[in-house]
């Protein structure tokens, strides 16, 4: 079977334009821990971040609105 450029799978790390910051690494690790613990909803994720002591960029506790805004900003 002949492969073409469209057959390739994009790995998330290939799309990076820069190295993640320490904050981004810590946030990602906390999100992964929550998923591994069986948390699969936004309310539970926000609770897990607050329980783990991971504060939002503004230093406030996470809310669903703050989480949505931050993840959208990180995705740009």
TrEMBL record:
<feature type="domain" description="Recombinase-like">
    <location>
        <begin position="5"/>
        <end position="75"/>
    </location>
</feature>
<dbReference type="Pfam" id="PF20552">
    <property type="entry name" value="HTH_62"/>
</dbReference>
<protein>
    <submittedName>
        <fullName>Recombinase-like helix-turn-helix domain-containing protein</fullName>
    </submittedName>
</protein>
<dbReference type="InterPro" id="IPR046789">
    <property type="entry name" value="HTH_62"/>
</dbReference>
């Amino acid at each position: 079977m002949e492969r073409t450029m469209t057959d390739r799978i994009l790995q998330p790390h290939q799309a990076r334009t820069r190295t993640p910051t320490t904050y981004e690494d810590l946030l990602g690790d906390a999100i992964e821990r929550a998923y591994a613990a069986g948390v699969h909803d936004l309310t539970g994720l926000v609770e897990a971040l607050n329980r783990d002591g991971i504060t939002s960029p503004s230093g406030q506790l996470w809310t669903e609105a703050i989480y949505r805004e931050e993840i959208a900003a990180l995705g740009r």
